[in-house]
Amino acid sequence: MFTPEQFSTTSLRDPRVLRILASAFNAVDPYTAVKKYLNNNPIPQHKRTFAFGLGKAAIKMTQALADSIPLTNTLIITKHASPLTFGPATAIEGNHPIPGKDSLAAGRAAIEFVSQLTPDDLLICLISGGGSSLMTMPVIPLADLQSITAALLANGARIDEINTIRRHLDSLKGGGLAQATNGAAILSLILSDVVGDSIAAIASGPTAPDTTTKEDAKIILRKYAGHQADQLQMNFKETLKPNDPAFNRVQNHIIASNQIALQAAKEQAEVEGFAAQIVNDRLQGEAREVGREMARLLLKEERAKQGRPLCLLAGGETTVTIKGNGKGGRNQELVLGAVDELKEMKDAMLLSIATDGEDGPTDAAGAVATDRSAHRAESLGLNVAGSMSRNDAYVFFDQMGDLIRTGSSGTNVNDIILCLAF
Questions:
Q1: 229 is in which domain, residue-wise?
Q2: Tens digit of pLDDT for each residue in 2-12?
Q3: N or C: where does the chain have the smaller number of CB atoms within 10 Å of the terminal CB?
Protein backbone atom coordinates (compact mmCIF):
# COMPACT_ATOMS: atom_id res chain seq x y z
CA MET A 1 0.00 0.00 0.00
CA PHE A 2 1.18 3.53 -0.75
CA THR A 3 2.03 6.17 1.82
CA PRO A 4 1.55 9.89 1.09
CA GLU A 5 5.28 10.59 1.35
CA GLN A 6 5.98 8.48 -1.74
CA PHE A 7 4.51 11.20 -3.97
CA SER A 8 6.39 14.23 -2.63
CA THR A 9 8.58 16.52 -4.78
CA THR A 10 10.11 19.98 -4.37
CA SER A 11 6.75 21.65 -5.12
CA LEU A 12 4.45 18.87 -3.97
CA ARG A 13 4.62 18.99 -0.18
CA ASP A 14 1.05 19.74 0.86
CA PRO A 15 0.01 16.74 3.00
CA ARG A 16 -3.59 17.07 1.80
CA VAL A 17 -2.61 16.52 -1.83
CA LEU A 18 -0.24 13.70 -0.92
CA ARG A 19 -3.07 11.92 0.91
CA ILE A 20 -5.37 12.36 -2.10
CA LEU A 21 -2.85 10.63 -4.35
CA ALA A 22 -2.23 7.80 -1.90
CA SER A 23 -5.98 7.22 -1.62
CA ALA A 24 -6.35 6.96 -5.40
CA PHE A 25 -3.51 4.44 -5.76
CA ASN A 26 -4.60 2.33 -2.79
CA ALA A 27 -8.18 2.14 -4.07
CA VAL A 28 -6.99 0.17 -7.09
CA ASP A 29 -4.46 -2.05 -5.33
CA PRO A 30 -4.55 -5.32 -7.33
CA TYR A 31 -4.32 -7.64 -4.33
CA THR A 32 -7.19 -5.89 -2.56
CA ALA A 33 -9.34 -5.81 -5.71
CA VAL A 34 -9.02 -9.55 -6.28
CA LYS A 35 -9.68 -10.35 -2.62
CA LYS A 36 -12.78 -8.17 -2.65
CA TYR A 37 -14.16 -9.97 -5.71
CA LEU A 38 -13.48 -13.42 -4.26
CA ASN A 39 -15.10 -12.51 -0.94
CA ASN A 40 -18.29 -11.52 -2.74
CA ASN A 41 -18.27 -14.18 -5.49
CA PRO A 42 -17.56 -17.81 -4.55
CA ILE A 43 -15.55 -19.66 -7.20
CA PRO A 44 -17.47 -22.58 -8.75
CA GLN A 45 -16.04 -26.04 -8.15
CA HIS A 46 -14.15 -27.77 -10.94
CA LYS A 47 -11.93 -30.82 -11.23
CA ARG A 48 -8.83 -28.59 -11.33
CA THR A 49 -8.27 -24.83 -11.11
CA PHE A 50 -5.44 -23.10 -12.93
CA ALA A 51 -4.32 -19.44 -12.79
CA PHE A 52 -2.95 -17.36 -15.62
CA GLY A 53 -1.69 -13.87 -14.77
CA LEU A 54 -1.00 -11.37 -17.56
CA GLY A 55 0.07 -7.73 -17.28
CA LYS A 56 1.83 -5.29 -15.01
CA ALA A 57 -0.36 -6.17 -12.01
CA ALA A 58 -0.23 -9.93 -12.54
CA ILE A 59 1.99 -10.78 -9.56
CA LYS A 60 -0.19 -9.09 -6.94
CA MET A 61 -3.41 -10.29 -8.52
CA THR A 62 -2.26 -13.90 -8.69
CA GLN A 63 -0.90 -13.77 -5.16
CA ALA A 64 -4.34 -12.75 -3.90
CA LEU A 65 -5.91 -15.68 -5.74
CA ALA A 66 -3.33 -18.16 -4.45
CA ASP A 67 -3.92 -16.91 -0.90
CA SER A 68 -7.64 -17.63 -1.31
CA ILE A 69 -8.03 -20.93 -3.15
CA PRO A 70 -5.88 -23.99 -4.02
CA LEU A 71 -4.40 -23.90 -7.53
CA THR A 72 -3.23 -26.83 -9.65
CA ASN A 73 -0.69 -24.77 -11.59
CA THR A 74 0.05 -21.12 -12.38
CA LEU A 75 1.71 -19.14 -15.16
CA ILE A 76 2.40 -15.41 -14.78
CA ILE A 77 3.55 -13.10 -17.58
CA THR A 78 4.47 -9.64 -16.34
CA LYS A 79 6.90 -6.73 -16.69
CA HIS A 80 8.60 -6.92 -13.30
CA ALA A 81 8.64 -10.41 -11.82
CA SER A 82 9.26 -10.88 -8.11
CA PRO A 83 9.78 -13.98 -5.96
CA LEU A 84 6.61 -16.05 -5.61
CA THR A 85 5.45 -17.37 -2.26
CA PHE A 86 3.21 -20.07 -3.73
CA GLY A 87 3.51 -22.91 -6.19
CA PRO A 88 3.65 -24.66 -8.48
CA ALA A 89 4.07 -21.45 -10.46
CA THR A 90 6.20 -19.93 -13.19
CA ALA A 91 6.77 -16.21 -13.72
CA ILE A 92 8.05 -14.83 -17.04
CA GLU A 93 9.06 -11.27 -17.87
CA GLY A 94 8.00 -9.99 -21.28
CA ASN A 95 9.02 -6.84 -23.15
CA HIS A 96 7.20 -3.49 -22.90
CA PRO A 97 6.06 -1.26 -24.58
CA ILE A 98 7.33 -2.94 -27.76
CA PRO A 99 7.10 -6.76 -27.84
CA GLY A 100 10.41 -8.56 -28.11
CA LYS A 101 11.90 -12.03 -27.96
CA ASP A 102 10.90 -12.38 -24.30
CA SER A 103 7.29 -11.54 -25.24
CA LEU A 104 7.40 -14.19 -27.95
CA ALA A 105 8.75 -16.74 -25.47
CA ALA A 106 5.93 -15.76 -23.11
CA GLY A 107 3.37 -16.33 -25.87
CA ARG A 108 4.72 -19.80 -26.52
CA ALA A 109 4.66 -20.55 -22.80
CA ALA A 110 1.03 -19.44 -22.61
CA ILE A 111 0.00 -21.77 -25.42
CA GLU A 112 1.82 -24.67 -23.78
CA PHE A 113 0.25 -23.83 -20.41
CA VAL A 114 -3.37 -23.81 -21.63
CA SER A 115 -2.85 -26.93 -23.75
CA GLN A 116 -3.00 -29.02 -20.54
CA LEU A 117 -6.57 -27.89 -19.81
CA THR A 118 -9.69 -30.04 -20.27
CA PRO A 119 -13.43 -29.21 -20.31
CA ASP A 120 -13.56 -30.24 -16.64
CA ASP A 121 -11.08 -27.53 -15.59
CA LEU A 122 -11.35 -23.86 -14.62
CA LEU A 123 -8.85 -21.28 -15.80
CA ILE A 124 -8.83 -18.05 -13.78
CA CYS A 125 -7.17 -15.28 -15.77
CA LEU A 126 -5.88 -12.21 -13.94
CA ILE A 127 -5.46 -9.58 -16.63
CA SER A 128 -4.08 -6.05 -16.44
CA GLY A 129 -2.55 -3.38 -18.64
CA GLY A 130 0.65 -4.02 -20.52
CA GLY A 131 -0.39 -7.54 -21.49
CA SER A 132 -0.63 -6.66 -25.18
CA SER A 133 3.13 -6.17 -25.38
CA LEU A 134 4.30 -8.59 -22.69
CA MET A 135 2.86 -11.65 -24.49
CA THR A 136 2.70 -12.12 -28.23
CA MET A 137 2.18 -14.80 -30.81
CA PRO A 138 2.19 -12.72 -34.00
CA VAL A 139 0.92 -13.89 -37.37
CA ILE A 140 3.66 -11.76 -38.97
CA PRO A 141 7.41 -11.73 -38.27
CA LEU A 142 8.26 -10.29 -34.86
CA ALA A 143 10.48 -7.63 -36.47
CA ASP A 144 7.52 -6.37 -38.51
CA LEU A 145 5.33 -6.24 -35.40
CA GLN A 146 8.03 -4.27 -33.56
CA SER A 147 8.35 -1.80 -36.43
CA ILE A 148 4.59 -1.26 -36.58
CA THR A 149 4.26 -0.82 -32.81
CA ALA A 150 7.12 1.69 -32.70
CA ALA A 151 5.57 3.71 -35.54
CA LEU A 152 2.15 3.77 -33.87
CA LEU A 153 3.62 4.92 -30.56
CA ALA A 154 5.80 7.60 -32.16
CA ASN A 155 2.96 8.99 -34.28
CA GLY A 156 0.52 9.46 -31.39
CA ALA A 157 -1.88 6.56 -31.97
CA ARG A 158 -4.37 6.01 -29.14
CA ILE A 159 -4.06 2.82 -27.11
CA ASP A 160 -7.44 1.56 -28.37
CA GLU A 161 -6.22 2.04 -31.95
CA ILE A 162 -2.94 0.27 -31.24
CA ASN A 163 -4.74 -2.64 -29.61
CA THR A 164 -7.19 -2.96 -32.49
CA ILE A 165 -4.20 -3.59 -34.77
CA ARG A 166 -2.59 -5.92 -32.25
CA ARG A 167 -5.74 -8.05 -32.04
CA HIS A 168 -5.66 -8.64 -35.80
CA LEU A 169 -1.95 -9.48 -35.91
CA ASP A 170 -1.72 -11.92 -32.98
CA SER A 171 -3.23 -15.36 -32.51
CA LEU A 172 -3.56 -15.00 -28.69
CA LYS A 173 -5.45 -11.69 -28.79
CA GLY A 174 -9.08 -10.94 -29.66
CA GLY A 175 -10.29 -14.07 -27.87
CA GLY A 176 -7.41 -16.21 -29.10
CA LEU A 177 -6.38 -17.42 -25.65
CA ALA A 178 -9.94 -18.49 -24.84
CA GLN A 179 -10.10 -20.42 -28.08
CA ALA A 180 -6.93 -22.35 -27.18
CA THR A 181 -8.11 -23.69 -23.79
CA ASN A 182 -9.64 -26.99 -24.98
CA GLY A 183 -13.13 -26.15 -23.72
CA ALA A 184 -12.16 -25.26 -20.13
CA ALA A 185 -14.30 -22.77 -18.22
CA ILE A 186 -12.68 -19.33 -17.97
CA LEU A 187 -13.09 -16.61 -15.35
CA SER A 188 -11.17 -13.41 -16.12
CA LEU A 189 -10.69 -10.77 -13.42
CA ILE A 190 -9.51 -7.58 -15.09
CA LEU A 191 -7.87 -4.29 -14.11
CA SER A 192 -8.81 -1.78 -16.79
CA ASP A 193 -6.09 0.45 -18.23
CA VAL A 194 -8.08 1.70 -21.23
CA VAL A 195 -10.40 4.65 -21.64
CA GLY A 196 -14.00 3.45 -21.50
CA ASP A 197 -13.06 0.07 -19.94
CA SER A 198 -13.49 -1.93 -23.16
CA ILE A 199 -12.74 -5.56 -22.24
CA ALA A 200 -11.65 -6.22 -25.82
CA ALA A 201 -8.99 -3.51 -25.56
CA ILE A 202 -7.48 -4.39 -22.16
CA ALA A 203 -4.35 -6.46 -22.94
CA SER A 204 -5.97 -6.73 -26.41
CA GLY A 205 -8.71 -9.00 -25.07
CA PRO A 206 -7.19 -12.51 -24.84
CA THR A 207 -10.47 -13.87 -23.41
CA ALA A 208 -12.86 -11.32 -24.93
CA PRO A 209 -14.83 -11.14 -28.17
CA ASP A 210 -13.93 -8.40 -30.62
CA THR A 211 -16.38 -6.28 -32.61
CA THR A 212 -13.70 -4.71 -34.82
CA THR A 213 -12.67 -6.21 -38.15
CA LYS A 214 -9.41 -6.55 -40.00
CA GLU A 215 -10.64 -3.76 -42.27
CA ASP A 216 -10.81 -1.50 -39.20
CA ALA A 217 -7.22 -2.46 -38.36
CA LYS A 218 -6.04 -1.65 -41.89
CA ILE A 219 -7.67 1.79 -41.76
CA ILE A 220 -5.94 2.62 -38.47
CA LEU A 221 -2.57 1.41 -39.74
CA ARG A 222 -2.87 3.48 -42.91
CA LYS A 223 -3.64 6.52 -40.75
CA TYR A 224 -0.38 6.27 -38.82
CA ALA A 225 1.95 4.18 -41.01
CA GLY A 226 0.63 3.97 -44.56
CA HIS A 227 3.48 2.08 -46.22
CA GLN A 228 3.35 -0.70 -43.62
CA ALA A 229 -0.41 -1.01 -44.10
CA ASP A 230 0.05 -1.69 -47.80
CA GLN A 231 2.66 -4.35 -47.13
CA LEU A 232 0.41 -6.15 -44.63
CA GLN A 233 -2.85 -6.19 -46.61
CA MET A 234 -2.94 -10.01 -46.68
CA ASN A 235 -1.60 -10.66 -43.17
CA PHE A 236 -4.33 -9.44 -40.82
CA LYS A 237 -6.36 -12.20 -39.17
CA GLU A 238 -10.01 -12.01 -38.21
CA THR A 239 -10.86 -12.17 -34.51
CA LEU A 240 -13.56 -14.03 -32.60
CA LYS A 241 -16.89 -12.20 -32.53
CA PRO A 242 -19.43 -11.99 -29.66
CA ASN A 243 -21.60 -14.79 -31.06
CA ASP A 244 -18.74 -17.29 -31.12
CA PRO A 245 -19.62 -20.38 -29.01
CA ALA A 246 -16.19 -20.21 -27.33
CA PHE A 247 -17.54 -17.40 -25.13
CA ASN A 248 -20.39 -19.51 -23.72
CA ARG A 249 -17.88 -20.73 -21.13
CA VAL A 250 -16.16 -17.38 -20.45
CA GLN A 251 -16.89 -14.75 -17.80
CA ASN A 252 -15.06 -11.40 -17.90
CA HIS A 253 -15.27 -9.03 -14.90
CA ILE A 254 -13.60 -5.64 -14.42
CA ILE A 255 -12.58 -5.36 -10.76
CA ALA A 256 -10.62 -2.08 -10.77
CA SER A 257 -10.53 0.93 -13.07
CA ASN A 258 -9.50 4.54 -13.45
CA GLN A 259 -12.99 5.60 -12.42
CA ILE A 260 -12.61 3.80 -9.08
CA ALA A 261 -9.28 5.56 -8.48
CA LEU A 262 -10.78 8.95 -9.35
CA GLN A 263 -13.75 8.42 -7.06
CA ALA A 264 -11.45 7.54 -4.16
CA ALA A 265 -9.38 10.66 -4.84
CA LYS A 266 -12.52 12.81 -4.97
CA GLU A 267 -13.78 11.46 -1.67
CA GLN A 268 -10.40 12.06 0.00
CA ALA A 269 -10.23 15.58 -1.46
CA GLU A 270 -13.59 16.35 0.11
CA VAL A 271 -12.36 15.01 3.45
CA GLU A 272 -9.38 17.36 3.10
CA GLY A 273 -11.71 20.34 2.66
CA PHE A 274 -11.58 20.76 -1.13
CA ALA A 275 -14.54 21.39 -3.38
CA ALA A 276 -13.85 18.37 -5.61
CA GLN A 277 -15.17 17.46 -9.03
CA ILE A 278 -14.37 14.74 -11.58
CA VAL A 279 -14.41 16.68 -14.84
CA ASN A 280 -13.41 13.92 -17.27
CA ASP A 281 -12.69 10.21 -16.86
CA ARG A 282 -12.00 9.62 -20.58
CA LEU A 283 -9.18 12.02 -21.38
CA GLN A 284 -7.43 11.38 -24.68
CA GLY A 285 -5.52 13.51 -27.15
CA GLU A 286 -2.11 15.12 -27.52
CA ALA A 287 -0.63 15.35 -24.01
CA ARG A 288 0.68 18.93 -24.24
CA GLU A 289 -2.66 20.20 -25.53
CA VAL A 290 -4.56 18.38 -22.80
CA GLY A 291 -2.25 19.99 -20.23
CA ARG A 292 -3.01 23.46 -21.56
CA GLU A 293 -6.75 22.76 -21.61
CA MET A 294 -6.78 21.43 -18.05
CA ALA A 295 -4.88 24.49 -16.79
CA ARG A 296 -7.31 26.81 -18.57
CA LEU A 297 -10.23 24.94 -17.05
CA LEU A 298 -8.68 25.33 -13.60
CA LEU A 299 -8.31 29.08 -14.19
CA LYS A 300 -11.95 29.32 -15.23
CA GLU A 301 -13.24 27.29 -12.29
CA GLU A 302 -10.91 28.99 -9.80
CA ARG A 303 -12.38 32.36 -10.61
CA ALA A 304 -15.85 31.01 -9.85
CA LYS A 305 -14.96 29.15 -6.66
CA GLN A 306 -16.30 30.35 -3.36
CA GLY A 307 -14.57 29.87 -0.03
CA ARG A 308 -13.10 26.38 -0.21
CA PRO A 309 -9.97 25.32 -2.15
CA LEU A 310 -10.70 23.58 -5.44
CA CYS A 311 -9.68 20.15 -6.75
CA LEU A 312 -10.53 19.14 -10.33
CA LEU A 313 -9.83 15.52 -11.19
CA ALA A 314 -9.49 13.78 -14.54
CA GLY A 315 -8.31 10.44 -15.85
CA GLY A 316 -7.49 8.73 -19.10
CA GLU A 317 -4.53 8.19 -21.38
CA THR A 318 -3.08 10.88 -23.61
CA THR A 319 -0.55 10.43 -26.41
CA VAL A 320 2.69 12.10 -27.49
CA THR A 321 3.65 12.67 -31.10
CA ILE A 322 7.43 12.43 -30.95
CA LYS A 323 9.25 15.11 -32.93
CA GLY A 324 12.37 15.62 -30.80
CA ASN A 325 15.05 13.39 -29.32
CA GLY A 326 14.45 14.25 -25.65
CA LYS A 327 13.34 12.12 -22.73
CA GLY A 328 9.93 11.98 -21.10
CA GLY A 329 6.49 10.42 -20.98
CA ARG A 330 2.94 11.49 -21.65
CA ASN A 331 2.29 12.61 -18.05
CA GLN A 332 5.44 14.71 -17.92
CA GLU A 333 4.67 16.31 -21.28
CA LEU A 334 1.09 17.02 -20.19
CA VAL A 335 2.33 18.94 -17.16
CA LEU A 336 4.95 20.75 -19.23
CA GLY A 337 2.15 21.92 -21.50
CA ALA A 338 0.45 23.53 -18.50
CA VAL A 339 3.43 25.48 -17.09
CA ASP A 340 2.91 28.73 -19.04
CA GLU A 341 -0.85 28.65 -18.39
CA LEU A 342 -0.43 28.22 -14.64
CA LYS A 343 1.70 31.37 -14.28
CA GLU A 344 -1.49 33.39 -14.85
CA MET A 345 -2.85 32.06 -11.55
CA LYS A 346 -2.05 32.32 -7.85
CA ASP A 347 -1.61 29.33 -5.53
CA ALA A 348 -2.34 26.76 -8.25
CA MET A 349 -0.97 23.29 -8.98
CA LEU A 350 -1.38 20.71 -11.73
CA LEU A 351 0.01 17.19 -11.67
CA SER A 352 -0.33 14.13 -13.85
CA ILE A 353 0.75 10.65 -12.83
CA ALA A 354 0.73 7.15 -14.32
CA THR A 355 -0.86 4.70 -11.92
CA ASP A 356 1.65 2.01 -12.88
CA GLY A 357 4.43 4.30 -11.65
CA GLU A 358 6.12 4.27 -15.07
CA ASP A 359 5.68 7.25 -17.40
CA GLY A 360 7.27 6.41 -20.71
CA PRO A 361 10.84 5.02 -20.74
CA THR A 362 11.76 6.89 -17.54
CA ASP A 363 12.06 6.27 -13.80
CA ALA A 364 9.31 8.81 -13.09
CA ALA A 365 5.57 8.26 -12.70
CA GLY A 366 4.74 11.84 -13.69
CA ALA A 367 5.38 15.45 -12.76
CA VAL A 368 3.93 18.47 -10.99
CA ALA A 369 3.89 22.20 -11.79
CA THR A 370 2.62 25.26 -9.93
CA ASP A 371 1.95 28.90 -10.69
CA ARG A 372 5.58 29.53 -9.71
CA SER A 373 7.13 26.90 -11.99
CA ALA A 374 7.62 29.17 -15.01
CA HIS A 375 9.57 31.72 -12.93
CA ARG A 376 11.63 29.00 -11.21
CA ALA A 377 12.45 27.41 -14.57
CA GLU A 378 13.65 30.74 -15.96
CA SER A 379 15.92 31.27 -12.95
CA LEU A 380 17.43 27.82 -13.59
CA GLY A 381 18.03 28.57 -17.27
CA LEU A 382 15.27 26.22 -18.42
CA ASN A 383 13.02 27.02 -21.36
CA VAL A 384 9.51 25.57 -21.62
CA ALA A 385 9.19 25.98 -25.39
CA GLY A 386 12.62 24.49 -26.05
CA SER A 387 11.97 21.51 -23.80
CA MET A 388 8.62 20.96 -25.50
CA SER A 389 10.12 21.07 -28.99
CA ARG A 390 12.58 18.34 -27.98
CA ASN A 391 9.98 16.24 -26.11
CA ASP A 392 12.35 16.71 -23.17
CA ALA A 393 9.97 17.06 -20.21
CA TYR A 394 11.99 14.65 -18.07
CA VAL A 395 15.12 16.80 -18.01
CA PHE A 396 13.02 19.94 -17.38
CA PHE A 397 11.24 18.54 -14.33
CA ASP A 398 14.26 16.63 -13.08
CA GLN A 399 16.20 19.88 -12.77
CA MET A 400 13.16 21.49 -11.11
CA GLY A 401 12.98 18.66 -8.57
CA ASP A 402 9.38 18.03 -9.60
CA LEU A 403 9.40 14.55 -11.06
CA ILE A 404 7.09 12.24 -9.10
CA ARG A 405 8.94 8.98 -8.52
CA THR A 406 6.88 6.23 -6.90
CA GLY A 407 8.64 3.24 -8.40
CA SER A 408 6.65 0.49 -10.08
CA SER A 409 3.26 0.44 -8.36
CA GLY A 410 2.11 -3.05 -9.27
CA THR A 411 -1.18 -1.68 -10.59
CA ASN A 412 -2.22 -0.04 -13.85
CA VAL A 413 -5.46 1.89 -14.42
CA ASN A 414 -4.39 4.74 -16.73
CA ASP A 415 -3.34 8.20 -15.61
CA ILE A 416 -4.68 10.60 -12.98
CA ILE A 417 -4.62 14.38 -13.33
CA LEU A 418 -5.18 16.72 -10.38
CA CYS A 419 -5.74 20.47 -10.85
CA LEU A 420 -5.74 22.41 -7.60
CA ALA A 421 -6.42 25.99 -6.52
CA PHE A 422 -5.65 26.64 -2.86
A1: 30-256
A2: 999 999 999 99
A3: N
